[in-house]
């Protein structure tokens, strides 16, 4: 079953193409299940509006997915959002995104952490170690809520925390143990596989996925999936196969979603 559960659109302001462009690319590529999962807006556009659709665009985003589904009944389209978890907005995720807008699932991701941010360094944390701990604590706390279907790029911290050392291993184990405990699938992210390598104390490597992370995950009872995290229509299924090769390489169990 060829599937991709992680897809953006031009609405997030750092991707290109409309819903229909991704759906047509997916149909051409033989994708059977496509989850549209653009970055969620927040009420009043209160948080990081520069990398997400405006709240006022929610209706049209959902409408375009419905229209594309009518036009292309041969593919199963799912409505989703990639979400930063903000505790104050718990009811928004549940009642608005899942309830009012009928989202099929929500993806948990850690790009922005309240009070700090791995993407946009605001100088509010003292060290990379501190930031790494904040990131791991954030993910685990969000997993506990049960609001999310899977965790996008759990090893994305590899883009700012460069060494693979005791701290990286401890943070990875904390995340993986929680995923195992809450039965929360972890994503091997194709966007990371498409990004240029960076230099670290242990040589050049991908920012993410991190080999060490997935090697550790193999020691736990956790499930994985691979997604393209497409930011342009031509990447609709890009690196998904390579993601599953990583899963196979470490003997990781693949999740089987049923819709
Ligand atoms: Zn993401
Ligand atoms: Zn994404």
Description:
The chain is of the alpha/beta class and 259 residues long. It has helices at residues 19-29, 58-71, 90-100, 128-144, 166-181, 190-194, 211-217, 240-250; strands at residues 3-4, 33-39, 76-83, 105-108, 150-151, 186-189, 198-200, 203-205, 223-227, 253-254. A 5-stranded parallel sheet has the order 1-2-3-4-5. α4 (128-144) runs parallel beside α5 (166-181) and α5 packs across α7. It binds zinc ion (2 copies). The site of one zinc ion has 5 residues, from loops. This is Histidinol-phosphatase. Its EC number is 3.1.3.15. Residues 5-189 form the PHP domain. It comes from Holtiella tumoricola.
Helix content: 25-40%
Within CATH, the superfamily carries the name Metal-dependent hydrolases
Q: Which structural class matches the secondary elements?
A: alpha/beta
Query: What is the rounded distance between the termini?
Result: 13 Å
Strand content: 15-25%
InterPro entries: Histidinol_P_phosphatase_HisJ, PHP_dom, Pol/histidinol_Pase-like
Organism: Holtiella tumoricola
GO cellular component, one term: cytoplasm
GO molecular function: histidinol-phosphatase activity
How are the secondary structure elements laid out?
Layout lengths: L2 E2 L14 H11 L3 E7 L18 H14 L4 E8 L6 H11 L4 E4 L19 H17 L5 E2 L14 H16 L4 E4 H5 L3 E3 L2 E3 L5 H7 L5 E5 L12 H11 L2 E2 L5
Parallel strand pairs: 1-2, 2-3, 3-4, 4-5, 6-9, 9-10
Antiparallel strand pairs: 7-8
Bound molecules: zinc ion (2 copies).
One zinc ion binds next to loops.
